[in-house]
Amino acid sequence: MQGLTRDEVEHVADLANLVLTEEEKQKFSRQLSDILADIEKIGAADIEESKILIAPTENHDLYHDDETVESLKNEEIEKNANKTSGDYISVSKALDD
Question: Alpha-carbon torsion 27, 29, 35, 37, what sign?
Answer without folding.
Answer: negative
